[in-house]
Amino acid sequence: MTDQTISNAVAVRENGPGALIQQYKADLAQVMPSHVKPDTFVRLAVGVLRRDKNLALAASNNPVALMGALMDAAQLGLTPGTEQFYLVPRKSRGRLEIQGIRGYQGEIELIYRAGAVSSVIVEVVRQADVFRYSPGRDERPHHDIDWDASDRGPLRLVYAYAVMKDGATSKVVVLNRAQVEAAKALSQGSDSPYSPWQKHEEAMWMKTAAHRLTKWVPTSAEYMREQLRAHAEVAAEQRPAQAVHSGPDRLDDEDGPIVAEFVDDEAEGGVRA
To answer: What pLDDT does 219 receive?
Structure first.
């Protein structure tokens, strides 16, 4: 390797996607929840690109898509490049670019972060499993697994529910293969070999059920909006009332007449306005 080759490699590294992420660290930090450390977030994001040459290429092809995905992850407070928030390359107009996809662990994290639930259960049901759930009769699903089985068979169902802080059970979400496949069909790039639908099928079944569950339990996004609304209302109540002028200002001569008052006019023996 020549000195010129090394210099070129260093220049690419210093001006590549990793440098771009570092450059926009302050912007990412502005939208992050308080529990997320910007330095850690940026370090993990840069590390993901360095470990995956396809991701690095996709990031270089379209830096705007890269930063858009990272901004989404930052706003949600999820870790990029993990099962909380996937970073995947996908083809767009003949070249790779980065797509951000919320994972099942991310969906569950957002539910927990709202503080309304004590536990979240998301499980897949395979062909050899025993599963029973009757809405209105059963509070929670009954799921038996033969852990000694060498092969539980293909995926058949997926379910999700939460146990609230008061012990109550949320709505139970149960999806069959057809429903999951319908959700997959609506997912952009799901047929790509890089998609988590192809590489992590079971996790994406669980993500689909967990995402449906967020319609029935609070998520951190809802919680944060409610907190902001409450803070705004308190601030409005505490704001001092502005002084209201009921009439024109006085003249410089405080002993003189005030405009629109009646004063005696001794010379004419009458009044004037």
So the answer is: 84
